Amino acid sequence: MSDKIIKGVSVTKEYGGVAVVKDIDFWVKKNQFLTILGPSGCGKTTTLRMIAGFERPSEGHIYFEGRDITDLPPYMRPINTVFQKYALFPHLNIYENIAFGLRIQKMSEKDIEIKVSKMLELVNLKGFEKRKINSLSGGQQQRIAIARALVNEPKLLLLDEPLGALDLKLRKEMQIELKNMQRELGITFVYVTHDQEEALTMSDKIIVMNQGEIQQIGSPTDIYNEPENAFVANFIGESNIFDGLMHKDYDVSFSDYRFECVDAGFGENSPVDVVIRPEDVKLSATGDGQLSGVVESVVFKGVHYEMMIQEQDRSWMVHSTDMFPEGSEVGIQIDPDDIHIMCKEA
Fold this sequence. Notes:
By secondary structure, this protein is an alpha+beta fold. The protein folds into two domains: 4-230, P-loop containing nucleotide triphosphate hydrolases (Rossmann fold); 238-343, CATH 2.40.50.140. Helices cover 24% and strands 36% of the residues. The chain contains eight helices and 20 strands. The strands form four sheets. It has a six-stranded mixed sheet with strand order 6-7-8-3-9-10, sandwiched between helices. A five-stranded antiparallel sheet has the order 13-12-11-14-20. Its EC number is 7.6.2.11. Pfam families: ABC_tran, TOBE_2. Belongs to the ABC transporter superfamily. Spermidine/putrescine importer (TC 3.A.1.11.1) family.
């Protein structure tokens, strides 16, 4: 039996003849935390809504545990959704909000009490049963929305930017809590966000989308360390991207210097894009390194300094815990492992 709980095959969604999701293939493994990541308007929420059943694909099929559910309405799918606007019932207290789906199933009062109590404990809100929704903070309301979705024991939970309304500190706390919940319950999560840090923090696998198309699928480390194109390199964190020439395997030129690298399979004398992350650039005051430049600006970012280095007609962004003053000359050292090669985009 396949370990894929959800699978999309050649899925397209059009509105008024305009495709907002374009012939994509994707899958989600059981007990996996998958994040669909991309900028606003890239098709990520539309993809989530097609999985949930709120939208029907214009073309293609969606399968749940091998069964075609493309035409099934949302209420017939073993899937629950948590939205950015939590859609809690203001006239019901916390207990009744969580119990709502169980009452629709006509579950016994004793079983409802057991399940609601378990959920309140899971989201650290035990003792809040009689509180009104409007008395809660944004983070507490978000926990109640998650508890209401989880109490029905769905096989798959969809989350559409549920942390977007929270402040930065609470958002970071909830990222960890959500991941812990997912691991404890063993439920498959599909999470939509435009926040790269959220995706890297929580995910087992990330789908990066842009303009309705999938740009890359991989683990957080693969997506960050081995971006497949310039869009992914720029969207996930900061990047220095330069024109390069791949002379042969493990041998590339850029910035008028010939570097050793660890990439192969690009052919001989092939134009490529070269990606170097700012934290992988090593600076020295002695001028040691393959290149040299002048510090143009320095900004303190809390855990590191962000410096812009002018090297001939090229600008380098560098993140370092060592600060080099503006105007100082520095050496630029790039190790082979820190050079990432991508095919040149047409």
